[in-house]
Amino acid sequence: MDTRINKIAALANLSAYDEDGSSSYIDGAPHIKHRSLRILYGQLVIQVFDRARKYNKIPVVLDLGAGEGSVTLPFLELGAKVVAVDSSASQLKTLQSKCERFGDMLEIRCEDVHEILKNKQVKYDIVVANSFLHHVPDYLTMIKEATTILNPHGQFFSFQDPLRYDSLGKFTMLFSTLVYFWWRGFRGDLIGGVKRRIRRARGIYLEGSVHDNAEYHVTRNGVDQVAICRLLDESGFDCEILPYFSAHSYIFQPIGAALNLKNTFGVIAQDRANRQE
Ligand SMILES: C[S@@+](CC[C@H](N)C(=O)[O-])C[C@H]1O[C@@H](n2cnc3c(N)ncnc32)[C@H](O)[C@@H]1O
Fold it and tell me: How far is the CA of 66 from the centre of ligand 1 (A)?
């Protein structure tokens, strides 16, 4: 096993646990909460970084929706330069305090990701969207934009988005929903949660509702992995969809994984025209 993985997995955890207020984030972030997912994530980060380093000694990473730094910190640790973008100043403040020691290797931008994607003059070796696509209503256009600011050998990398719900088997969907309610039951507002679910099942989404819009595609039909792969393929990228199981509950995470269920996915895509592998 690559000796860097444990360190990278631990950093993803640290990036969410360190500060006040982070414990509530981690509770709702399975990719940081569960060691098995942190290990998987660490392996992918290293894979993407090592591939990028073949083309550029110091790969430049654009971290979209950087949050508290669970992408930024591991990539900095591996030796990349990172531009971290998030619209939340408080999230970025936490990220900055965790990554201070990396000095010039880190640039922090507090703005909407759509703004930074407009600038076609600056190119990156890796664009990452970690636990982020499900927040963006038109994520396909955003990914398309991301491909236009990648260097010729560039990679698009994402992790922790819900697979499109109507592509899951019935049992996986039922198991995932029950596990979610099990976890939700210990968080208060169970009745509010059930009411929201019933409303959405009837196709009613409220425009002004934070619950309906913050995690836009979690509350709708998940994220369309097939459409993403098609888009990346048509844009000249080799695309790999990496499905896995993810749940909020400590008890049901290993059970779902042992049952080999898949409800969540990552993407690694690399510019095909310039591939040298
Ligand atoms: C679930 S968090 C993911 C954080 C981090 N990437 C991770 O994996 O832990 C999503 C982040 O996206 C940010 N965000 C949502 N929409 C955004 C937008 N349009 N532009 C910039 N940041 C956005 C939120 O502020 C939040 O920090």
Answer: 6
Neighbours of 96 (CB within 10 A): 15
pLDDT band at 4 (very low <50, low <70, confident <90, very high): confident
The strand pairing partners of 128, in sequence order, are 63, 157
16: pLDDT strictly greater than 90: no
Give, for ligand 1, the residue of 87, 92, 143 to mutate: max count of ligand atoms closer than 8 Å to Cβ.
Answer: 87
- Tokens describing residue 95: 């990220």
User: According to the model, what pLDDT value does residue 262 have?
Assistant: 97
Res 136 pLDDT > 70: yes
**In 3-state terms, what secondary structure has residue 267?**
strand
Q: What's the count of helices (H) and strands (E) in the chain, helices before strands?
A: 13, 7
d(C-alpha 212, C-alpha 206), whole Å: 7
Query: Which residue(s) pair with 137 in the sheet?
Result: none
Domains observed in the chain: 4-167+214-271 (3.40.50.150)
Nearest protein Cα to ligand 1, atom 14: 65
CB 264 within 8 A of CB 164: no
Distance from Cα 161 to the centre of ligand 1, integer Å: 12
| Cβ(131) – ligand 1 distance below 6 Å | yes
Q: Where are the alpha helices (DSSP H) in the chain?
A: 4-17, 22-27, 30-33, 35-53, 72-78, 89-99, 113-118, 139-147, 170-185, 190-201, 210-213, 225-234, 252-258
- Look at residue 18 and tell me whether its pLDDT is greater than 60: no
**Do residues 221 and 164 lie in contact, with contact meaning Cβ atoms separated by under 8 Å?**
yes
